[in-house]
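To close the section, here is one more complete example, presented without commentary so you can practise reading it yourself. The ligand is DLL.
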Amino acid sequence: MILHPKVECMNRDEKEELQLHRLKQTVTAVYENVPFYKNAFDERDIQPCSIEILQDLQKLPFTVKKDLRDHYPFGLFAVPQEHLVRLHASSGTSGKPTVVGYTEGDIDRWSDMVARSIAIAGGEPGHVLHNAYGYGLFTGGLGLHYGSERIGMVTVPVSGGNTERQILLIEDFKPQVICGTPSYILTIAEKMEELGLNPKATSLKYGIFGAEPWSEEMRATLEEKLGIKAMDIYGLSEVMGPGVAMECHEAQNGLHIMDDHFITEIINPKTLEPMQDGEYGELVFTSLTKEAFPVIRYRTGDIASLDREPCRCGRTTLRMSRVKGRIDDMIIVRGVNVFPSEIENCLLSIEDIVPHYQVHVLTEGLKEHIELHVEMSEKLYALTNGNESHTATELLKQTIKQKVKNTCLVSLDIKVFPPKAIPRSEGKAIRVVKHVQNKMGV
Ligand code: DLL
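Output:
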């Protein structure tokens, strides 16, 4: 179902005209209301009237996460506090979260974009939606919730965690669609198996999964285990929340960007130069309709590529590829860059391990050691009695090492752990664990 055919199937010229009109409004609003942007534009001698064509966007400075932290909590808001109706925040590594605000109009447009996303994934009024994204400051829970209600679906606000209760509710409420991080949905499917239930036998028909990088192999695993179609949803709190882009049920090939609300660029994260369609680089978003927290050229730190070809679902929107990973999570082994999702892609097709893994990066001074932690299946564990030096375990390590080397072109040390040793996700999975040791080894 195409919820808004007028914008979703608009021709490119018309879309660009709409984008330019909205871009001019946004640039004027931030210039007049956010001192940070006014100063940054003044420094470069840019007035809102300097934006005459869409390409003029490239004259504007980038915004980065540090700018949000430096203006914590409300310094980048473009409206007075009495116009706000909601705050969300995402936790950061440095302690201070990044805070985002919404006016009533922002919530209305966000709900609409999520409703559109759910429809893109195959949602229809009357379907029951089991929402296993966390409710709270994280945008996942409430974001999906409002969109689901907007489309007229029966919305079950389960939130994350309490996996056995999730299963009970799936059995009893009979949802057609489940939403959550791919890693948590996998945890739910495994728990069903553990309880002697068949995950394929539920009422579920499709899933809306995102909020963390995942691979095509993970899609195949989830689709196989649960007997569903799995679609990718992308978003980030700084830009809005979930629903910035959504993969369609028909093609499952690239995510449709809500390009009437956002302009997307791909840049080389080192040189900051624009990149061609099809090339992988850093995603950059400019919001076109946000009132409380507009962003200009926000560098997401996420690596993806763009595709302007119309999709076979009939939509003409710009599409982005699946996100390979965050620049922060990229591992560099002897000059070769690898994302955990690329490692995941080759791990999941190997028998005798389960789809849980972590990459541990141990740094001591200038020395770096990278270990890939995987978990053996119950079957292999029974065969080897948990003996690490059993021939079957050694053989498994060699297979993994070779496969990672052939596919990702890096040689990693492999550690195989007994069943359930790798922490299970109830939200965003932690794929890269960094350990920094001082000379004393602590
Ligand atoms: O994760 C919003 C969201 C909620 C998206 C529910 C999808 C579903 P944040 O907590 O601010 O917001 O985290 C944003 O998560 O910059 C990406 O690195 C990552 N991310 C989000 N969606 C995807 C995806 C939400 N589909 C950060 N694939 C982003 C890969 C994703 N990474």
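Once you have examined the tokens, check your reading against these statements. The domain at 1-327 is CATH 3.40.50.12780 (Rossmann fold). The chain has two domains: 1-327, 330-437.
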